[in-house]
Amino acid sequence: MSAAAQVTDSTFDQEVLQSEVPVLVDFWAPWCGPCRMVAPVVDEIAAQFEGKVKVVKVNTDDNPSIASKYAIRSIPTLMIFKGGQRVDMVVGAVPKTTLSNTLEKYL
Amino acid sequence: MNTQDKTTQASDKSLEVLRQFAETYAKRTDTYFCVDPGVTAVVIEGLAKHKDDLGAPLCPCRHYEDKEAEAAAAYWNCPCVPMRERKECHCMLFLTPDNDFAGEQQDISFDDIRGFTNHS
Hints:
The complex is a heterodimer. In chain A, 35% of the residues lie in helices and 25% in strands. Chain A is of the alpha/beta class. Chain A has a five-stranded mixed sheet. The radius of gyration of chain A is 12 Å and the shape is globular. Chain B is mostly helical. Chain B is built from five helices and no strands. In chain B, helix 2 crosses helix 5. Chain B is globular and about 35 Å long. Chain B starts with 11 loop residues before the first helix and ends with a helix. The chains are: A alpha/beta, B mainly alpha. The A-B interface holds A 1, 6, 8, 27, 29-37, 59-60, 62-64, 67-68, 72-76, 92-93 and B 1-4, 7, 34, 36, 38-40, 42-43, 45-47, 49, 60-63, 65, 90-93, 101, 120. Chain B: The active site is at residue 61. Chain B: Catalytic subunit of the ferredoxin-thioredoxin reductase (FTR), which catalyzes the two-electron reduction of thioredoxins by the electrons provided by reduced ferredoxin.
């Protein structure tokens, strides 16, 4: 497993919506192949943006309320939250540059 | 804490059915497995798990409000409609040769699959 903290239905509000820095949320599922590919990229992003961006993960099987609230369909889906609002979204296993360029817009 | 540790695998029987399906379907559609065989293994295990739980190999790379209803609707049962119509598999199980992540394999053994999913 990766270094990014797992967030649940019950901790999402506090950990993501009330965060003082932008948050990258990796919505994943256990038997999703591309999630395996994006996980190390997400970990690298966490290290690269340490202190500037919070990086967390949500297991959509175990946390259906949050997955439904944000209308997660294709997995992996990566969402960026800032000030309690969803501000951007990237779907699928994307290269690190795509993700870091997207994040830079919200710093 | 939610981790993958408590995730259960599919039955051996369903895993073998889906493994054989994946090999046959890749060859029939001229598609290839991912360069990372761990991706292939995890997806086949997920399809087999859904076959056990729902009676149909529902795509494991999507979130559903109601898995039973989706399995009955069949749109996302493997091979899904986007795969059959346009060779689009966002799960990266069946990749066209021009895909950057396409490997050269159309075969994967039962033991190879479990070699990856035993540790997932």
